[in-house]
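Justification of computing resources. Each target in the renewal requires a structure prediction run like the one illustrated here; the chain below, 102 residues long, is used simply to show the kind of job we budget for.
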Amino acid sequence: MFGTSGPRDDATGVVFLSLVPGQEYEWHENPVLQWIVPIVGRWFVTTMDGVRVEMGPGEISFGADQNCRLIEGRRGHLSGAVGSEPAVIMLIQVASNPFGVV
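Resulting structure tokens:
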């Protein structure tokens, strides 16, 4: 049996980004808590421990790396488009972390 969730009152904004192919965006933190939803193309994120994950349409991640410590010149994550096409990403910004404090 499938259930549905009720309306969320903690969404604070929606932003669309287009990541340029071949450009790696320097180390940065997510500006706010946000769901990251690829709409078109593929993108990657590399975490401070060196793990790289690639995602495309149908996949989702949660960005909660605010207030990271600077470790060996790294803070937050690296990201960019994968391949030769732009990656269009929808960011659904929220007021609270659905997973608790990370």
